[in-house]
Amino acid sequence: MKLPIVAYGDPVLKRKAADIDRDYPELNVLIDNMFETMYAAHGVGIAAPQVGLSIRLFVIDASPFAEDDSPELKDFKKIFINAEIFQEEGDKWDFNEGCLSIPDIREDVSRPSTISIRYFDENWVAHEDTYTGLAARVIQHEYDHIEGKLFTDRLSVLRKAMLKSKLDAITKGQVKVDYKMKFPSTKKRK
Predict the structure, then answer these.
(1) What is the CA radius of gyration of the chain?
(2) Rounded CA gap, 115 and 85, in Å?
(3) What's the domain count of the chain?
(4) Is the per-residue pLDDT at 185 higher than 90?
(5) Catalytic annotation on 26?
(6) pLDDT score for 186
(7) Catalytic residue (one of 72, 89, 107, 142)
(8) SS3 state of residue 190
(9) Fewer CB within a 10 Å sphere, N or C end of the chain?
(10) Is residue 96 part of a domain?
(11) Chain centroid to CA 103: how far?
(12) Is pLDDT above 50 for 76?
């Protein structure tokens, strides 16, 4: 089932998400729904806060990047539960990022090239892995969501000020997308 994607301005996107346990209700259904929602919106990752749930869960399928210059991402489809990035290293590099919760805005974001992360997969198997390049980039972007951060938080004050009217328009639902979105409540006008 496709879920509505929470738009910029909703408080759930700025809240640090909570760990879950193996008894989380219908976790496999939620994971399937998140993948379906992500694919329908043409994304490569989606985090639970983006579907309104403040839990430490995100899913990634970075295989569209394999069509470009990253063949190593051909089968890069993963589920991250209770993830914790414990090391970031390497040179920072810029990459043009976008976000399903912030449609029609793309900006260059600087991130470290290598990360090490602990997480559980959908079968509650513990992993401790190191990723580099675009894989690390996509993970860092989704990880930020469960930490209550957005890619716009990583922009300069000046750049963010220049985007203010576009961000305000998203908050008010004044954006056209080809997927279901849930916009923050706004006061009714007379």
Answers:
(1) 16
(2) 7
(3) 1
(4) no
(5) no
(6) 56
(7) 142
(8) coil
(9) C
(10) yes
(11) 12
(12) yes
CA distances from 153 to 73, 80, 162, 163 (A): 27, 22, 13, 12
- Residue 189 inside a domain? The answer is no
Tell me the residue range of the domain where 162 lies: 5-182
DSSP of 119-147, one letter per residue?
EE-TT--EEEEEEEHHHHHHHHHHHHHHT
* Residue 26 · residue 61 · CB < 8 Å: no
Cβ contacts of 147 within 8 Å, gap of 6 or more:
16, 17
What is the structure's pLDDT at 187? 47
Residue 82 belongs to some domain of the structure: yes
Token readout for 9 is 């301005």
Nearest C-alpha neighbor of 58 from the set 69, 42, 45: 45
- Cα dihedral across residues 79, 87, 136, 145: positive or negative: positive
How far is the C-alpha of 175 from the C-alpha of 170, rounded, in Å?
6
Strand partners, 88: 115
CATH of the domain at 36: 3.90.45.10
Please give the order of strands across the beta sheet that includes 102-120.
45-47, 57-61, 77-99, 102-120, 126-132
* Cβ neighbour number for residue 51 with a 10 Å cutoff: 23
* Token pair of 108 as six digits: 């260059």
Q: Supply the mean pLDDT for the chain.
A: 94
Nearest-5° angle of CA 168, CA 171, CA 173? 110
Q: Which two tokens stand for residue 177?
A: 């997308």
